[in-house]
Amino acid sequence: MSIHARFLLDHGDFCLDADFTLPGRGVSVLFGSSGSGKTSILRAIAGLEPAARGALEVNGVCWQDDEKAFFLPTHQRGLGMVFQEASLFAHLDVRRNLEYGFSRTPPQERRIGWDQAVEWMGIGHLLERRAQMLSGGERQRVAIARALLASPSLLLLDEPLTALDFRRKQEILPYLENLQRELDIPLIYVSHALEEVVRLADYLLLVEAGKVAAGGAPAEILSRLDLPAGFAEEAGTVIEARMEEIDTRDRLARLAFAGGELWAPLTPALESLPTGAPARIRIHARDVSIALSEHVDSSILNRFPAIIESSAPAEHPAHMLLRLSAAGTPIVARITRRSHEALGLRPGLQVWLQIKAVALV
Amino acid sequence: MLTSHDWAAIVLTLKLAGLTTVILLILSLPLAWWLARSRSLAASVVGALATLPLVLPPTVLGFYLLVAMGEHGPLGWLTLKLGWGLLSFSFTGLVIASVIYSLPFAVHPLQQAFKAIGERPFEVAATLRASKLDAFFSVALPLARPGIITAAVMSFAHTVGEFGVVLMIGGNIPGRTRVVSVQIFDHVEALEYAQAHWLSGGMLLFSFIVLLTLYLLQRRNFRVI
Predict the structure, then answer these.
(1) Which residue of A45, A82, A104 is the best one to mutate when testing the B interface, meaning the one whose CB has the most B CBs within 10 A?
(2) Of A146, A133, A94, residue with least CA distance to B124
(3) Which of A187, B21, B49, B180 could make a disulfide contact with A27, Cβ separation 3.0–4.6 Å?
C-alpha cells in the first residue's frame, strides 16, 4: 500500500520536477519553504493542476498516467482536501456544507459516519450556524469534517493551520492528532511549520525549489546534517519513545527509547499516558551537550552514550552541529567549535550526551 | 385617465419585457459563465460583441436588425424559407431585437458575479465529488444569486424603457408592436399632454420602484468567504 507520484510542471518562472513514493497510511508531511512547490504537488495529487504531466497511483489505483493519456477528474478520485483558508460555501449553513460531500457519496462507499465526523471535530453545536458566523478555528474544523464526510480514500491538507493565530493552532492540533489515530486512510499534510511536522508526521518529504530533497522517517530526516542549512539545527531531534513509569514524588516521567531512558517533567499530557503508550519526544540541538565520560556528579538527569557520526557547520560560525547515534537513534547536538577542537571530537568516537530539556510533542 | 390603447400598450410592454428577460437569462447564464472563466481570444471578441448594444445608438442597432429581418436580409430569407413570414413589424421581431438590445444588461452583472466567486469554491466542490455541471448548479448559481437578480431586473427595466429599436423595426401597430414608450410619443405628437403625463409618471414610478427594490435586495447580499 503506497502512493507513487511523478510530476512535471512548468510555470515558466517555477518548475516542478518531483518523483516520490509515500506510505499508503499514516501522515506524510510535505515540508518546505513557501514557493518550494509543496502545494503544487498536493494540488497535482488532487487533480487540480491540469498542466502537471506525469503519473500518479494511490494504493493500487491509477489516478493519472500521461503515457496512457489517462487523467481521472478530481470529483471521481474520492479524495478529501482541506485548503489553507477555510473555503466553506457561503450560501450554505454548516450542516448543509457538511452534507455537500456526504450526500454525493454513495451510501455503500460511506466509511465515516456523520456522528463520528461531527464528534471528532467537536462541531455539534455549530450545525445551524452560517459559515460567516464561525471563528477561523471553527471554520477549519468544519472544513475537515466536511472533507471526511465525503469518505475519502486519501485526505489532503494544505497548510490548514497557517491562517490561524497561535491560540487557534493549539486548539486545532489535538483534533488533527485525533484524526491521525482514528483514520485508516493516508493523510498528506503540507506545512512549513516544524512544530506541525514533529507533532504529526509519520513520514517526511522535504521539498526544495520544485524538487524532492529527501524523504523518510522524521527522526531520520530531521537529524540529517546535509539538508538545507539550519534545518537540523532548528528542528532538533524527534525520538519515538514509550511511557515507562511516573514518579509522583519527584513529578517526573520515565520514557524509554532504543538508545536508553529519558526523564521528563510531568505535564498533563504525559500524566494521561498509560504505561507502554508511545510518546513522541523532541530534543532541541541546543539542549544537547557532549562529554567524553559520564558525569555522575552532574545535575543533568538525562545522560546516555552515543557515537559521533558526522559534523557540519551551524548557523552561527562559533557553533557546530554533530549528528550522533544512540543505539541507532539519531540525535543532533549543537556545540561550540572551540569545544569540538578541545575535546578532539571526530566521527566514530563514543561520547556521553547530556540533555537539558526533553519535551513531549 | 388611461384609454384602452394605453392599457394595450402597457400589457404589450410587460409581455415583451417579461419574455425578453426569461430568454435573456437562459442565454446569458452559460454565456456569462464562459466569458467569466475563459481567457481565450474568442471570449474577448464575444465579450466585446455582447457589449456593443450598450454603446451603439438604438437607431443603428434597429436599422441593421430591420435590414437583416427584411426580405433581402439573411434572417428574412431564412424565415421566409421556413414559411414564418417576415419578423419585422411583428411581436417576435420585437422580442429578438429586445434580447439583443438588452443583452449587455444581463451578461455584465452575471459575468461580474461569476468572476467574483473565484476558482476556489469550484475546486472545493470537485474535491467533494461534484462534477463540473453539478457545481455550476449547486455552487455557481447560488453564489451568483445577487448577480442573477440584478441581471433579471436590469433586463426587464431596460426592455420596458426601449424606444428607438422598437420604432425602427416594430413600427407602431396597436396591440402588436406599440409599447408604452411609443404610445407616449404618440400622445405628445397629438398634444395629448394629460395622457402623456399619466403614462410617463407611471413609467417614472415603475422605474424608481424597480431600482429601489434592487438596491434593497443588494443590501442583504451575503459575502463570499
Answers:
(1) A104
(2) A146
(3) A187
pLDDT in tens, A98-141: 999 999 999 988 888 899 889 888 899 999 998 888 988 889 88
Say if the Cβ atoms of B124 and A74 lie within 8 Å.
no
Pick from A114, A122, A48: nearest CA to A87: A48
* pLDDT class of B205 with cuts at 50, 70, 90: very high
Q: At what angle do helices B91-117 and B4-37 cross, to 10 degrees?
A: 40
- Nearest chain B residue to A132 by CA distance is B225
Transcribe A4-39 into DSSP letters: EEEEEEE-SS-EEEEEEEEESSSEEEEE--TTSSHH
Residues 6+ apart with CB under 8 A from A132: A90, B222, B223, B225
* The three three-digit cell numbers of residue B107, written as one number: 451578461
Nearest to A87 among B124, B129, B131 (CB): B124
Give the C-alpha separation, A18 to A16, whole Å.
6
Question: Residue B32 pLDDT more than 80?
Answer: yes
pLDDT of residue A92: 93
Helices (H), A127-250: 136-148, 166-182, 194-200, 218-222, 231-235
Return the pLDDT at A189: 92
Residue of B nearest to A74 (CA): B126
CA pair distance A226, A312, nearest whole angstrom: 8
Q: How far is B9 from chain A (nearest CA, A)?
A: 40
**Cell numbers at residue A179, please?**
484524526
Report yes or no: A159 and A192 within 8 Å, Cβ to Cβ.
yes
pLDDT given at position B105: 94
Distance from CA of A62 to the nearest CA of B (A): 17
Give yes or no for A146 touching B (CB within 8 A): yes
Check CB contact under 8 Å for B143 and A73.
no
Q: What are the chain B neighbours of A48 within 8 Å (beta carbons)?
A: 123, 126-127
- Pick the residue of B119, B128, B148, B221 with the most A CBs within 10 A to test the interface with A by mutation: B128
Interface test with A, best of B129, B131, B132, B145 (most A CBs within 10 A): B129
Please choose, from the candidates B168, B157, B186, B159, the residue with its C-alpha nearest in 3D space to the C-alpha of residue B62.
Answer: B168
Would you state the pLDDT for residue A209?
A: 87
Task: Tell me the residue type at B179.
Answer: V
Bridge partners, B119 (sequence order): none
Query: Could you tell me the sign of the dihedral formed by the alpha carbons of B159, B160, B165, B168, in that order?
Result: positive
Are residues B121 and A87, on separate chains, in Cβ contact within 8 Å? yes
User: How far, in Å, CA of B28 to CA of B51, rounded?
Assistant: 12
Q: Angle at Cα B41 formed by Cα B39 and Cα B45, nearest 5°? A: 110
Chain A residue closest to B128 (CA)? Answer: A101
Q: Which pLDDT score is estimated for A230? A: 58
HSE-up (13 A, CA, CB side) for residue A93: 9
